[in-house]
Amino acid sequence: DVKVTQSSRYLVKRTGEKVFLECVQDMDHENMFWYRQDPGLGLRLIYFSYDVKMKEKGDIPEGYSVSREKKERFSLILESASTNQTSMYLCASSLLGASTDTQYFGPGTRLTVL
Amino acid sequence: GEDVEQSLFLSVREGDSSVINCTYTDSSSTYLYWYKQEPGAGLQLLTYIFSNMDMKQDQRLTVLLNKKDKHLSLRIADTQTGDSAIYFCAEIKDSNYQLIWGAGTKLIIKP
């Protein structure tokens, strides 16, 4: 079974802090994704990566950056957290870029910015 | 534009069938997905359908696709309390293989 893990289930940070959210997958997947999930808005893609050191902006990249130094690990960075970044953050991975691709999700990190 | 739309809530009685509907806009989508998110958990792929199919059945789940109307539905027969979850519809964006997500439908089971 594919396993996608995220470093924290719950996180509370203060405005202006730098925040790191870590995601690790154990199935040698090329693609990794970071989404945020907000009520009534569904999932919105922040960034994705299709290879080590490669990244692409998603729909809402502003205020975020990412890092993919190793294939199994994809980090989401909030350089200076703001209250409007309070959300559920979901990491996903997938094997190929083809349209049969299935994304496997981690359990999510609920981030609260005070 | 790109948009996947779903109702935000659906309430059914235990034992009845649940039908969750979804409309999408990208007619070139080749695959459409249903994901399930149980309370406090991440998303899990429930089922998917290829665009040249009209129907796919998997135990209690039936997916119907009307490509002409760009309408996708998920039917859960004999709905149980364990089916309580948020169900997300998603289509693949063929140009870059990104998924476009609906907002999710929360399925509420009444005893």
Task: Give a verbal description of the structure.
The complex is a heterodimer of chains A (114) and B (111). Chain A has 114 residues and is mostly beta strands. Chain A is built from no helices and eleven strands. Chain A starts with a strand and ends with a strand. Chain B has no helices and eleven strands. In chain B, strands 2, 4, 5, 9, 10 and 11 form a six-stranded mixed β-sheet that branches. Chain B has a five-stranded antiparallel β-sheet with strand order 1-3-8-7-6, with no helix packed on it. Chains A and B meet through strand 5 and strand 10 of A and strand 4, strand 5 and strand 10 of B.
Largest sheet report of chain A: 7 strands, mixed
Task: Count every helix of chain A, treating DSSP H or I runs of 4 or more residues as helices.
Answer: 0
> What general outline of chain A do the C-alpha atoms trace?
globular
The poorly predicted ranges of chain B are none
- What number is the mean pLDDT of chain A? 90
Number of strands of chain A: 11
Strand content of chain A: over 45%
Shape of chain B: globular
Main sheet summary of chain B:
6 strands, mixed
- Report the average pLDDT across residues of chain B: 88
Distance between the termini of chain B: 40 Å
Radius of gyration of chain A: 13 Å
Structural class of chain A: mainly beta
- What is the rounded Rg of chain B? 13 Å
Counting H and I runs of at least 4 residues, what is the number of helices of chain B? Answer: 0
Distance N to C terminus of chain A: 37 Å
Alpha-beta classification of chain B: mainly beta
